[in-house]
Design goal:
With about 230 residues, the chain is an alpha+beta fold. The chain contains two helices and eleven strands; from the N terminus they run H-E-E-E-E-E-E-E-E-E-E-E-H. A six-stranded mixed beta sheet has the order 2-11-10-5-6-7, with no helix packed on it. Bound molecules: 2-acetamido-2-deoxy-beta-D-glucopyranose (NAG) (5 copies). One 2-acetamido-2-deoxy-beta-D-glucopyranose binds next to loops.
């Protein structure tokens, strides 16, 4: 029984294996290592504050001497901020080197976290930071993610004035509307009053007119239409 069953299933198993191998190799080339700077890869910070530049990595085939570095894009040239090597999965990074002042490594290998902190940011710190990773298990393939930092003097000053403008605008519009309604009602009232007066005038004068007219028609004799 058992032998028969396994024999009949053999070709199917082979094809499943082939599909799995193809899928695995596609996955392996595409998704072996991934650097990730988070869902929102940009930040606005006030000068003088401390900023965390987040970066994590995911690897489905495991880590073997993962080389990672942070780089700063200084007007086109990439300047190293820090670099290090993670020997194996969940091991602490070794040979940590920091090339920029006020920078500190804040990562944690247990959570595949290679974030850095910039203390007391200045306006010169603004720009693009690249989190770069290379896992020799993948034959030297490069992976990176970019985080953009902007440094401002104050947060959301423009937005505040904008809301103030909008609020005062709406207030002004409502005030204008109220004044308009009042004026409209007043005008309508005055017009109604005037009309009333006019009606009175019309009624009184109308009677006079009809009387006059009637008497007029009566009084004027019709011209004789027939004239030879
Ligand atoms: C931020 O920059 C402004 C303008 O250069 C300066 O007046 C202010 O003191 C700075 N703030 C901090 C916290 O360094
Ligand atoms: C950036 O580079 C361009 C040309 O490569 C140069 O004109 C510009 O002045 C540079 N800006 C800074 C801030 O160094
Ligand atoms: C990475 O580490 C930093 C500092 O400990 C922490 O603030 C951040 O939330 C961590 N990021 C992730 C995705 O765990
Ligand atoms: C931050 O920078 C300002 C000016 O650059 C300096 O006066 C201050 O002492 C610095 N603070 C820290 C905590 O480094
Ligand atoms: C990978 O990165 C290294 C170091 O930055 C660089 O020398 C190399 O040319 C890159 N390789 C590829 C294929 O981009």
């Amino acid at each position: 029984m058992e032998i028969l069953r396994s024999r009949s299933f053999l070709p199917e198993r082979n094809s499943i294996c082939l599909v799995l191998i193809i899928m695995f190799s596609v996955y392996w080339t595409a998704e072996a290592l991934e650097m990730n700077t988070g869902k929102v890869p940009f930040l606005e910070a006030v000068n003088g504050s401390d900023v965390l530049l987040p970066c994590t990595y995911i690897s489905c085939i495991g880590i073997d001497r993962l080389y990672f570095k942070w780089e700063y894009n200084d007007n086109g040239t990439m300047v190293k901020v820090m670099d290090s090597v993670v020997p194996t999965d969940h091991a602490e990074p070794v040979n940590k080197q920091i090339y920029r002042e006020r920078v500190e490594f804040m990562g944690n290998s247990k959570t595949n976290n290679v974030s850095i902190m910039i203390w007391n940011v200045t306006f010169e710190d603004a720009g693009q930071y690249t989190c770069f990773g290379k896992n020799p298990k993948e034959m030297g393939k490069n992976h990176s993610a970019i985080f953009t930092l902007s440094v401002v003097e104050e947060l959301r000053v423009v937005d505040n004035t904008l809301t103030k403008i909008i609020v005062s605008c709406i207030g002004g519009c409502i005030a204008l509307l109220v004044i308009f309604m009042l004026l409209k009602n007043l005008t309508l009232f005055v017009l109604a009053k005037l009309e009333e007066k006019n009606k009175e005038c019309l009624v009184s004068s109308g009677i006079d007119n009809t009387e006059n007219g009637l008497s007029g028609t009566k009084a004027t004799p019709k011209p004789t239409p027939k004239k030879p």
